[in-house]
Every structure is written in C-alpha cells, then in structure tokens.
Amino acid sequence: TTVDKKTAVGATVEFRSLRRAFGATTALDGLDLTINPGELVALLGPSGCGKTTALRILAGFESHDSGQVLVDGEDITGVPAHRRDAGMVFQSYSLFPHLSAADNVAFGLRMRGTGKAERRSRAQELLELVGLPQHADRYPHQLSGGQQQRIALARALALQPRVLLLDEPLSALDAKVRLNLRDEIRRLQQELGITTLFVTHDQEEALSMADRVAVLRAGRLEQCATPSELYARPATAFVAEFVGTMSRIPCVRSGDSVVLFGRPFAVDGTLPYDGELDVLVRPENVGLTASATGPALVVSASFLGSVTRLTVRLADGTEVKADLPTEAAAALPIGSNAELTLPDRPVLVDRRTA
Ligand code: ATP
C-alpha cells in the first residue's frame, strides 16, 4: 500500500454539550464544536480553559460526564483509544527510545500484524513524507528535537487515521524549527485531508495554521471562526483581547453612539450594558502625529521590524498602543507629545474594566 494522497479521508468530529469536571474543577462546561472533514481547527484559550481535556476525550484517554463526542455521526464513547482511528502527536517527543526511527514509525503497523517487508516499505514512504528518508536507522537520541517531532508525526500518520490530534507539538522546539514544522504539518494535513484538532496556547501558531480557530473560555466555546474573522470581527471582548492586541479607552455614552475625544462614534447594534464603557481598538488602527500640544505622551516604543509599536499615555492614565511605520515612529521619541486619531468605528465596545 502507499500513502494515499489527495483523498479526503477526514472524518467529521462533533463535541456536543460536553461536560467534564475533576472534583470541584469544571474543565469542560458544555462544549459545542463541529470540525468538518479535512479541516484543521486550533483550540486556543488561556491556561486551564479545557483544551487538553477536550483533545484527550476525543482520543479516548479521558472520559466525559455528559454530552457526546461524535465521529461521522457515531457516538464513540465506548470505543477504546486504540480503535478510534486517530493519530496523536504530543509536546514531548514520546518516541520509543530503544526503537529506530523506522521502527517507531512502523510500530502501529506491527501491532496490527502487518508483515515485516511491508512495514519497512511503508515506514520508508512515511519518512520521505516528513523529509527524513535517510534517517531510518537512527535512534531518537541521535535526532534533533525537530526531527523527533517529524518522526512522531510520521508515526501518527502510519495507520492512515481519519483524525489527527496535535497537543502542543511545537512548544518544545526552538523558534526556527518551529516555523518550519508549522508549514510542514499544515502542508501534510492538507495533502492528506485529515481532520485535525490542534491544541495550542500560542495565538500566532493558531492563526497561521488553522482553517478555523476555536477560542475556549472556562470550558465553553467563546467563538469559532476563520483567523481573519476572529481578528476583524471578534464576537466578544474576551476574544478581541485574547487574539491580537487591543487597547481599551474609556468613552462617554451618547444615545446610541459613544463619544471619544469629543468625537461621536457609531456602534454596531445597540450599546451593551448600563454604566461606563470602553472602546477597544487595535494598534494598527490608531494614528499618531507629532504635536507639542497633543494629549498623548509617548511612554515606550518597541521595534517590530517594519512597524514600531508605540505606547502613549493620556491625561487620565489610559495607555494606548499604536503601530507606526518604523520611519514615522522616529519622529515620536519617548517623552514627546502627539495627536491621536482613531478609525471611524472602534472594533468593540465593552463594559469598563479599569
Ligand atoms: P493548559 O493550556 O494549561 O494546558 P488547558 O486549556 O489544556 O490548559 P486542561 O488541561 O484541559 O486545560 O485543564 C482544564 C482544567 O481541568 C484545569 O483547571 C486543570 O487543572 C483541570 N484538570 C485537568 N485534568 C485534570 C485531572 N486529571 N485531575 C484534576 N484536574 C484536572
């Protein structure tokens, strides 16, 4: 057999009202999420929001208290982990140290009773697939971290699973290897059409790799959307502030709009909440121009390459971040004053927190 490319083999995965508590800790509090065939969904959220628990329940390593996990419409609750047709890659390399790369890759095939010659040729194909054809006879301790993760990926793909589960697979690697492997995993996943659930706490990783990003908060789904939707149209202030950078600026209510620096701003829909409000704006939407009498004082600058992110402080102590082309930022040294301009429509209005 050969590795079947370009056949969409991915399953549909559904979490329905999934609940799981550990004693007094609620890890999942009614999670609803559907992953479409061949889709890569990243589970993103703060530490403890239930990402790993959801993945482990799908893998069959953890039970749930109520709700359902469906694969192609079938409840898999009673199905043991090894029958779930899922490949897994974990953060720590978890290769068998006493087995060569090829034997690690072929491990599942051996368990399944595949003959030696076929195992060897399948392992070789998979090693080629992950770019390590000449490393078949190396042992894990003779491989770099990135190479070990490639082997772990090949091993996870060996049984042609319909679901691929990735639990922070890149977190232990250094920056450059991580970026390479990001592209590699994405390429393979798309080529093979495997439905993939990717757990990460790294928003950049989630946004750059996923078809859709599911943001979890306290065991529930806050929003699941494409990276660009999530960024441009966050459903809640939590998502807005978790994904990308946001500044909060206190504003004044005026009928159905809000007033900021003396200028009215329209708001999508009706104003939420009674009481005081903040608007949320992204740094790339904030403009600054040098002005000795301007209300914003530049307090810090961080160089990000083509842009420099300036933080300015307003009279009431509010801090706002603004991304300027690095050349333009040179005209606004720390300690200088600036006029501040905002987009026609702030991203979101939220209850004041400060
Ligand atoms: P992190 O990003 O820190 O890995 P996470 O989003 O993956 O977090 P989970 O590991 O799913 O979160 O944990 C969710 C909650 O459930 C946490 O409060 C955690 O302490 C708790 N929890 C998870 N597994 C267990 C367990 N086996 N026993 C007790 N509590 C657990």
Structural summary, described in words:
The chain is of the alpha+beta class. The chain folds into 2 domains: 13-235, P-loop containing nucleotide triphosphate hydrolases (Rossmann fold); 245-351, Nucleic acid-binding proteins (OB fold (Dihydrolipoamide Acetyltransferase, E2P), Beta Barrel), CATH 2.40.50.140. It has 10 helices and 20 strands. It has helices spanning 51-59, 101-105, 107-111, 116-129, 145-157, 175-192, 203-209, 227-232, 237-242, 326-329; strands at residues 13-22, 25-35, 40-44, 66-71, 74-75, 86-89, 163-167, 195-199, 212-217, 220-225, 247-254, 257-260, 263-265, 277-281, 287-290, 296-303, 307-313, 319-325, 337-341, 348-351. It has a 6-stranded mixed beta sheet, with helices on both faces. Strands 13-12-11-14-20 form a 5-stranded antiparallel beta sheet. Strands 15-19-16-17-18 form a 5-stranded antiparallel beta sheet. A hairpin with a 2-residue loop joins β4 and β5 (74-75). α4 (116-129) crosses α5. The N and C termini lie far apart (62 Å). The relative contact order is 0.13. The model has no long low-confidence stretch (mean pLDDT 90). The structure holds adenosine-5'-triphosphate (ATP). Adenosine-5'-triphosphate binds at residues 22, 25, 27, 45, 47-53, 201.
Keywords summarizing the entry:
about 350 residues, alpha+beta, OB fold (Dihydrolipoamide Acetyltransferase, E2P), 2 domains, five-stranded antiparallel beta sheet, ABC-type quaternary ammonium compound transporting activity
